[in-house]
Amino acid sequence: MNFLDQLLSHAPALLVAIPLLGAFLTPLIGRVNDKLRNIFVIGILGFTGILVILLAQQIFASGPITYVFGSLDPYVGKETVIRILFEIDALSIFMAMIAIVLSFSAALYSWAYMEKNTGLDKYYSLLLLLTVGMLGMVLTGDMFNFFVFLEITSIASCALIAFYINKVKSVEAGFKYIVVSTIGALFVLMAIALLYGQYDALNIAKLADSITFSFVDKIALVLLIAALAMKGGIVPMHMWLPDAYSRAPASVSLILIGTTQAGLYGVFRVLFTLYGNVITLPTISMGWALVILGLLTMLVGVIMALIQIDFKRLIAYGAIAELGYMFLGVGTCLTILANPDITLAQAPFAFEALKGGLFHVFNDALDVGLLFMVAGAVYYATKETSLNRLGGLARNMKYTTIFFIIGLLAISGIPPMNGFASKLLIYESTYQLNPILSIIAILSSIMLLAIFIKVFHAAFLGPKLPQFDTVKEVPRSMLLAMGFIAAFIIIFGLFPDLIVNTIVDPAANALIDNAGYMRWLIGG
Amino acid sequence: MLDMFLQTFDTGNGFWNPIVWIVAFVVIFLIVVIIRGFGNKNYKKGTGQTKAFLSGNQEYEKTQMHVKASNLYWGWTESMKWVIDGLKKMHTGNVSDYVLWFVVVMGILLLCVGLI
Fold this sequence. Notes:
The structure holds 2 protein chains of 2 kinds. Chain A is mostly helical. Chain A is 75% helix and 3% strand. By secondary structure, chain B is mainly alpha-helical. Chain B is built from 5 helices and 2 strands; from the N terminus they run αββαααα. The interface between A and B is large, with 73 and 51 residues.
């Protein structure tokens, strides 16, 4: 076995271990030199990114991977041994890709953006811990382990949101976030305890095989979905999101997108995998619940975004609206799956809806991420976030303006950007479930376009304002980070077929193939 | 290899090819430029032809003429005031209310799974 094979065989553990070790080493390296610390953090995330790509290649080529921490044999006699499994299928690695792209861009962007702040050793440590939490959440196959990583994510996020401790509103946003996150996590823990009490197991596949949809199972399902949807910022549990996103540093807002999406991943995993066996029981109308929550999320998101005058708060509401599309796509698929009278082969649009929803998860991370970075760049250059006081910045910040236009077109689903491809899948498939769903989705996209044109006009167009006469373009590291994300947006937009076939289709198949997930784990 | 990148994206019920769209866009753009070339060439920069006409009123300083963000879509926000006011009321900024909404959603989901 050569070095690369050795590395790959332990890649699942290394994906968490490397950033975790990096998080504890960062303050030590920071004592030597600030630049060295920044290079170290970017290097750690870059290396983790390479591992994700190598692992993804392996998973897409030869199927899911199980990595065991502890005993290889799940039983000693009749007793179950304590061990933790990382169960990495195409969906897990798809989510890991999103997390690492966001983390890497955030670290790159932070180099110049956070340069003038103090406490950066702690900042970078927390950034790496947040990455650990996100990766752990999407890679683990153990419910309690999922809860532990959820907590790591929550604590690191809270500290990062309240990073500007001299600003009251940042601290308040951090406080709100930790209250909401802790309550959510408490309910997740309660649900896990209910399942553990019934089935004496924490492994997702083992639980999925055992669940009978008893009274207690139903309670556990509701607790898990509500708590994870709150973490995912779904309306009407979204209110913490604009507070947190708008008050955190822009680089943190970028990575927070990953944490909300890890929450959504939890919702999808619970519904399709954990409760996948009982999905066709007539008492479950979770599919429609997801669809309605998705529609509400879209509509409330766009209406609230339209009336905002704070740049970052407006983007945060736009991000909420985008989350609705994912719920709509995935909910449409679940509605068909839950209908015992229709098979997936009879309604192929359901699978297209799922693909659209998942593709939109990646696209949303890129589009909203880029827009947050642009908002951060504008703040960096002008020290202003009010759209009423901004204007004429396109004259001094040409590259930032171009990146904003790319983000604007992408989030509004304008061709040929990436947002169009995933939204097209969602529009077409939801139309077949009910045309009204599609109409509302298209209407929301039109409103998103109107919202971001307002931002474009208010901040970038118009005459050069005297107070911004001396404004200059932002430093190269920030432009590089924005360019990195913009390149993804353009590539995903120009070659949607390649992206969908390579990474989205396997992820959707992994999510839908509940029997395969259990066969692979329990049978293996 | 090139084929892999140029594949038309099959959406299940339709298709989408961004490369064809871009080519079409460029062709249309060129046609527009050509038609524009046939236009009137009497335009003179820096003369009265370029001044804004505001129904005979004096033109403001350029910095004063920039429409601010809160003035955009004024008509729409006025006509939708009843919805917007309702949503604003819902967004209290009070973390206790955030938790209350969580409880409400849990109640609705309990209905969905047939427990209530």
